[in-house]
Amino acid sequence: MASSYGTDADKSSLRSNYLTARRRIDPATRRALDSSIRKNLGSFAIYADAPLVLAYVSYGNEVDTRSVIEAALGAGKRVAVPRVSARKKSMAFFEIESLDDLAEGYKGILEPREGLGAPLGTKDLCGSVCLVPGLVFDAQGHRIGYGGGYYDRFLQFYPGDKIALARASQMSSNPLPAEPCDVPVDFIVSDLGVWSCR
Q1: Residues 51-96: tens digit of each pLDDT
Q2: Burial 134-153 (b: 16+ CB within 10 A, else e)
Q3: What is the DSSP string of 95-161?
Q4: Total-model pTM
Q5: What pLDDT digit, counting tens, does each position of 111-140 carry?
Q6: Which of 44, 55, 146, 155 could form a disulfide with 183, with the two C-beta atoms 3.0–4.6 Å apart?
Q7: 76: left (phi over 0), alpha (psi -120 to 50) or beta
């Protein structure tokens, strides 16, 4: 794993440092790394066997998930994407049939447009996998996200496997600061392979 900025750095400092590092990756390198991540994800049995994928829509310089979503739909998987309620400080997943079902939402991120039906309930999520965003991850699956806490609140009740998509430069060799409310991921899929955090 790549080195981190140190365990004494607080979450805000880590967030700032990793955002800066991610912005410095040139587009061609980013595309090559993301292609390797997609390949490793597609050959990862837990993901490959899941009939339902909960996927975030990549924003800015995040690992590209739009192509992941299109590939999953093309393979006959069901795909659901989150819609955020800033007022309730929560998010819910809605099933989509294509990227055309998305519209700009919270902070300009693409979300399921209105009128797509009811959000998926906990029973609907059994047997699914959830792709979890983050800026940096450690070997135990702890992560530094963007500070909203939406995924941690959702994941506290999520019954399936939690999978992070990360470039190798987003993996810390040092433990990250974690709070009791933080929910670690189960696996990290990077350009170098799949890491089990269990």
Answers
A1: 999 999 999 899 999 999 999 999 999 999 999 998 888 899 999 9
A2: bbbbbbebbbbbeeeebbbe
A3: EESSGGGEEE-GGG-EEEPTTS-PPP-GGGGTT-EEEE--SEE-TTS-EE--S--HHHHHHTT--SE
A4: 0.89
A5: 999 988 899 999 999 999 999 999 999 999
A6: 155
A7: left
